Amino acid sequence: MEGFVKMNKDILNALRELEKEKGIDQEVVLEAIRTALETGYKKNFGKATNFSVEIDKENGEYKLYQAKTVVESVENNNLEISLEEAKTIDSKYELGDIVKFEIKPKKDFGRIAAQTARQVILQKIREAERESIFNEFYGRESDILTGVVQRENKGNIFVDLGKIEGILTVNEQIPGEVYRPGDRIKTVILEVKNTSKGASILLSRSHPNLVKRLFELEVPEIHDGIIEIYSIAREAGSRTKIAVFSHDPNVEPIGSCVGNKGIRVKNIIDEINQEKIDIIVYEKDPEKFIANSLGPAKIIKVRANEKEKTAVAVVPDNQLSLAIGKEGQNVRLAAKLTGWKIDIISESQESEQTGEEV
Length: 358
Prior knowledge:
Blueprint: E1 5-6, H1 9-21, H2 26-44, E2 51-55, E3 61-71, E4 80-82, H3 83-89, E5 98-103, H4 109-137, E6 144-153, E7 156-160, E8 165-168, E9 184-195, E10 198-204, H5 208-218, H6 220-223, E11 227-235, E12 239-246, H7 253-258, H8 263-271, E13 276-281, H9 286-293, E14 301-305, E15 310-315, H10 320-324, H11 329-338, E16 341-346, H12 347-357
Parallel strand pairs: 3-4, 8-10, 12-13, 15-16
Antiparallel strand pairs: 1-3, 2-3, 3-5, 6-7, 6-9, 7-8, 9-10, 11-12, 14-15
């Protein structure tokens, strides 16, 4: 082949633009093109493995080479060259050395080269975009996102997040909530995976972190760190308990979370499909904290065993069912919120136990 074969100038310009706009290393793309060209040539024109391509990154021109091993006696002209012939090229060649010959490409190889280069570039663009999206979302687990419901498939809801679709699986939906295409919903990121098809964003509307993030958005005192959320216990679609406390004695935590005329907490309830929310004050004293956690029931007293983290709460007889809650929900959420195992007994039951002990 005489001189260089020119690669499409548009392709070379495209490589430079890619490096500027998408941060795709030009060297990486050129190496991928070179490898693809070698593979393409061997596949279409030469079954031998001793062909290689070199690309001039300055002008986009490439050369095709065939490599031959220096041997004493040639058995395969495609793979070997005699020592005698090699020395006519360069007297320094010895047995075992590799001699590279520039060869003229087969007919149509220029067209194949251009197609291959374009395919590689498109592939690298897709890879870079997938990597960029993954990097944008990776490490943002529990962040809140607003998206638009796109479609439903086998119970899973696909949510448009702008650059990518997120998946809201059945288990991460609020029970009883209906999702219609076009609905704007808030979700939290549950998990970010990097798959062969790019980033996969798993979303949740049932996770306690959604309630936490909504309070951070709605209550400036929480966002600013004046009020702190100690813990959250949630049974999505039904009820949430949230324990808060204030770092400033002049700021009342429950009032701040509820807002003027209840507007702050109402906005959160509206966002989570009218789920009930109990806001309670966290106390360092476990007995006070447990008593608070069992609201709205009134608690007479709490006996706590710090070593075993178990507690017995005594309630008025007419408050027993309220303290336990429907199907045990109130005491169950209180236990989750506090991290204590809680038993509820009525005032009468306590009197009976005391009498038996006497």
